[in-house]
């Protein structure tokens, strides 16, 4: 049963990542593509990580996977917002000054 859940999590995470990657080819502009990066880091990575944890059981490897997933899931949207702000500044959509 655990193996089936692990494979389902792998499949869902990889499917989300592949669909988001292919959709990036269709979208124009960095600001539009950033939405898909956030989708990958907030859904794809945790699902693959959950699959790895279910497959490996409780061990140091699982702790490492959990730590990596938590860091990436927590920092992904923040880094995407920062990259979006820089892209908007370069495109002239937002002032160069930092927010006050």
Describe the protein's architecture and organization:
The chain is mainly alpha-helical and 100 residues long. Helices cover 84% and strands 0% of the residues. The chain is built from 3 helices and no strands. The chain has helices spanning 2-26, 30-56, 60-91. Helix 2 packs antiparallel against helix 3 (60-91). The longest helix has 32 residues, at 60-91. The termini are far apart. The mean pLDDT is 88.
Give a concise summary.
With 100 residues, this protein is mostly helical.
H/E series, N to C?
A: HHH
Given the structure, what is the number of helices? 3
Largest sheet: none
Percentage of residues in DSSP E strands: under 5%
Helical percentage: over 70%
Radius of gyration: 17 Å
Q: What separation lies between the terminal Cα atoms?
A: 53 Å
Number of strands: 0
Q: What is the mean predicted local confidence, pLDDT?
A: 88
Shape: elongated
- Classify the secondary structure makeup into a structural class: mainly alpha
Unreliable stretches covering 5 or more consecutive residues = none
Question: Topology of this protein?
Answer:
Blueprint: H1 2-26, H2 30-56, H3 60-91
Task: List key phrases describing it.
elongated, 3 helices, 100 residues
């Amino acid at each position: 049963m655990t193996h089936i859940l692990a494979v389902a999590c792998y499949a869902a995470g990889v499917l989300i990542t592949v669909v988001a990657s292919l959709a990036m080819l269709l979208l124009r502009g960095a600001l539009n593509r950033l939405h898909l990066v956030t989708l990958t880091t907030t859904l794809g990575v945790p699902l693959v990580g959950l699959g790895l944890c279910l497959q490996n059981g409780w061990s140091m490897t699982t702790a490492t996977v959990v730590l990596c997933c938590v860091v990436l899931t927590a920092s992904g949207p923040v880094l995407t917002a920062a990259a979006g702000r820089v892209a908007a500044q370069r495109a002239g959509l937002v002032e160069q000054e930092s927010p006050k």
